[in-house]
Amino acid sequence: xxxxxPKDLENIExxxxxxxxRIVPYMGYETxxxxxxxxxxxxxxxxxxxxxxxxxxxxxxEKRDSED
Length: 68
Hints:
single chain, 68 residues, alpha+beta, two-stranded antiparallel ribbon
């Protein structure tokens, strides 16, 4: 079993469309600094950065609760 490094849970960059952390460079940055989300397939130059996993979870919970 792998131990998670606390540093891995800091500065989490997410998709600006669906807030998934599963973003990767789009076309290897050949088109400029763009990312594609592996979940919603949104292509963007804008991502959202959360300080840590807790702040991302808090944001997602508040977003979910406000939509109810």
